[in-house]
Every structure is written in C-alpha cells, then in structure tokens.
Amino acid sequence: MTRFSEAAWAANAGLYETIRTMGFNEELAAGTLKLGAFKHYMVQDAHYLEAFGRGLAVAAAKADTADAIVQFSEAAKVAIIVERELHEEFFQKFGLGQEEFQATPLSPACHHYTSFLLATCWAEPYPVALAALLPCFWIYAEIGKDIHARAAKDNPYQAWIDTYAGEEFHEAVRAVIATTDEVASRQTEETVAKMHLAFKRATQLEWMFWEGAHQERDWSVG
C-alpha cells in the first residue's frame, strides 16, 4: 500500500520543482539574492515561525499517542527557539533590529499562510492538521539539501543554508513524515482526501511565501 507521504509528494512533485527552481532559491544558491529580499524573508519567517509553533502545539494537543504529544510539543518549542535565534544571529548579521521587526506587519503571503495553518490546526481533525504542517518541514529539508549541494563558494547566506541542510533537521523531518504516514494509514478515504488537499494548499503557500519575499511584497493598499 502506498504511504500517504509518497502519494502526496508524487502528486505535488511538479510544484516542488517550481519551488526549487524559482528565482529566490536560484539566487540564494548563487549568493546573488538581493539583501532587501532576504531581509524581507527573514522578518516574515520570524513571524511565520511563531504561528507555526502555535500550530504544532495544537497538533500536540490533538495527538492520539503519548509519543506524538511529546514529538509535536518539542517541535513547537524548537520553532520558537529558532525564531529567537533568528533575531539574535541573522537579524544582527543583516542589520535588522527588534524594533524594525515588531513594526513590520505580516506580509500578504505570510498572513495567508499562517491563517491557513492555524485555522486548519484548530478546526480540522489531527490527521489533516499534520498534512498541513508537513510541507514546511519537508520542503525546507529538500530545498536546504539541494541548495547546499550547489551553493556558491563564500555564499553570504551560508548559515541559513547549513541550518536546513543539517542532519539534525533532516532527522526531525523524517520523524514527522513517519508519524503522518502512521496516522494516515488508520484513516478513512474521506479523511485521507482532506489530508491531500491540506498538503497541496500548504505546498502552494510555500511557493507564495518565497515568491512574496523575492518581490518584497507588502500591503500596497490602505
């Protein structure tokens, strides 16, 4: 029987390739990404990680095994810790202050993505919440590995690349995939179909998030 993760990845392989080869990631790998675009990304990613941590905490509360409660509670903790490290390390390196971060609202893409994640985690059953959360883990791991393999020498964004290409992160991603597959194997066809829809939407929003950062999009009205 095909695992949920295998089917979901195969169904969205073309979308992943679009993400892998999009301008933001091509330029990030080459070290030519505009500093403004990277700053936009870093600020929005810090906003996103806080919401992602909340979504993981909700998933932990809905988990159907003690091990999964621990797994997603720890993942929520790590998401918040990473956000704080972004403030201290990346923000300092790229000239971003705490006041600038606090004064910058969520971009349209970040607002859309975080609203989708939180609404899904709160309103949908545990398996669908996992499917919505999984693309962020998995796509970042694959993009990090891909960029690491082809990154230009002396890349100014090497620290970011190393974070998502590291084995510690990949080990955590494999664990989330395994949990999602195990949970999916016990669901009805209807629930699995909802899981696929959530996985696809989150994958689309991954593209939208990076594309918005590349274009430095903000709220152009009001």
Automatic annotation (TrEMBL):
EC number: 3.5.99.2
Keywords: Hydrolase, Thiamine biosynthesis
The keyword Hydrolase is assigned to this record: yes
A GO cellular component annotation in the UniProt record: cytosol
A biological process term (GO) from this entry: thiamine biosynthetic process
GO molecular function, one term: thiaminase activity
Residue ranges of domain Thiaminase-2/PQQC in the record: 24-213
Database matches in InterPro entries: Haem_Oase-like_multi-hlx, Thiaminase-2/PQQC, Thiaminase_II, Thiamine_Salvage_TenA
Metabolic or biological pathway, per its Swiss-Prot or TrEMBL entry: Cofactor biosynthesis; thiamine diphosphate biosynthesis
Catalytic activity: thiamine + H2O = 5-(2-hydroxyethyl)-4-methylthiazole + 4-amino-5-hydroxymethyl-2-methylpyrimidine + H(+); 4-amino-5-aminomethyl-2-methylpyrimidine + H2O = 4-amino-5-hydroxymethyl-2-methylpyrimidine + NH4(+)
Functional description taken from the UniProt entry: Catalyzes an amino-pyrimidine hydrolysis reaction at the C5' of the pyrimidine moiety of thiamine compounds, a reaction that is part of a thiamine salvage pathway.
Protein family according to the UniProt entry: Belongs to the TenA family.
Protein name: Aminopyrimidine aminohydrolase
Origin species: Lutibaculum baratangense AMV1
